[in-house]
Amino acid sequence: ELEGDVLVMLEGQPEVAVIARSLGARPHSWHRMALRDRRATAWPPAGSFDAATLRLPKAKDELQMSVHAAAASLRIGARLWVYGAGDEGIRSARPLLEPLFKEVTTVSTGGRCRVLGAVRSSVSTGLKGTLTDWTQITNIMMCDSFRDWISYPGVFAHGKVDSGTMTLIEVLSSLPRRARVLDFACGSGLIGATVLSKDSSASVEFLDADAVALKAVIQNVPDARVILSDGYSGVRGHSYDMIVSNPPYHEGKAESRQMLERLLSGAPRHLMPGGALLFVTQRRQRVKSLLASTFPVTEAVLDRGVHRVWRGEL
Prior knowledge:
By secondary structure, the protein is α/β, with parallel strands linked by helices. It contains 8 helices and 17 strands.
């Protein structure tokens, strides 16, 4: 049933686009995550697509936003297929589709997975068809004063300040004047913004693989320098006085140490002599030996509750 221009949304593997092309369709892949250096944008390309496929994202609010993005990109009568596993929440997709799509049915099942098919209806009431429509503003405490903070569905700790970030912020040490700082896996930018609030002479760069997260950073931190990159590949040749991070430890629903290991192993190449890496993890994460194998000076700066803040210094 695939023909014409097909929008392939949030699919990390090539098979869907390959099959669409083999059927004579013209696939257009859209990713919000710049993983493995692939191109990513915060919102799908504009157009009146003839069909779309949507790989189920991990968060329900991100799924809802993606369904609306698909609806805004499809012509009336075009088909959408949404697919994922039961433990990923595929059954929750149906009620999110029904306000903007008709003929929502299960078209295929296999193992623990399911494919839902739907047809774009002429109903547009309630359509939130731009990223701006999904802006969420939260009032947060930063450096002893409250301020508005912007986030979007799918961004880490969307709509709140997570306890790990709060723990790291508590121990942000004083920096040399005009220090260069990298907020690695920055999310909406809270850690780097706190650095700037403590010392306006600092220069902070915000790095994340999520194009949507960096949209939030730009709104939260005026004149922010953002880097869309899956790890250090986007800052080759750059050096910093400090790298700060609350690194992610999930890929989808599965736990993964990959980003943590890349954060630690790559940090020395991007630090000035005497520079430091300051990061927070859950206490159950085994970090001590890995950190010691990378930095000559290491310490656990804070050990509280479920979190531990580590520092490695050259």
